């Protein structure tokens, strides 16, 4: 982080990285979410493009989706698939539609 803070043009660096304790429940939920999302025929294209994946974060049973998708329909389908997961307490769909 010190290297980044000293780069020309950088005014401030905010360290918001958190390391969550390993939870078998969260890990299993994340794996199920990935399968549900990436096995969907409409969303499978995001699994093969490492530059544009749908990022799935699970913390204490709460699922958050991050990244950029091609259309509003893709965002909605990803949210639907995540909301169908048994054991997920909540789903926060923070996917953005690329312009």
Keywords:
single chain, 99 residues, alpha/beta, three-stranded mixed sheet, two-stranded parallel ribbon, 4 helices, 5 strands, 18% strand
Could you characterize what this model shows?
It is a single chain. With 99 residues, this protein is an alpha/beta fold. It is built from four helices and five strands, in the order H-H-H-E-E-E-H-E-E. The chain has helices spanning 2-5, 24-38, 45-48, 72-83, and strands spanning 55-59, 62-66, 68-69, 90-93, 96-97.
Task: Kindly summarize this structure in a few lines.
The chain is built from 4 helices and 5 strands; from the N terminus they run H-H-H-E-E-E-H-E-E.
The proportion of strand residues reads 15-25%
What gross morphology would you assign? Answer: globular
The helix content, as a percent range, equals: 25-40%
Radius of gyration over C-alpha positions, nearest whole angstrom: 16 Å
| Residue runs with pLDDT of under 50 for 5 or more positions | none
Strand order within the widest beta sheet:
1-2-4
In DSSP terms (H or I, runs of 4 or more residues), the helix count works out at 4
What is the number of beta strands?
5
SSE string:
HHHEEEHEE
Main sheet summary? 3 strands, mixed
Mean pLDDT: 89
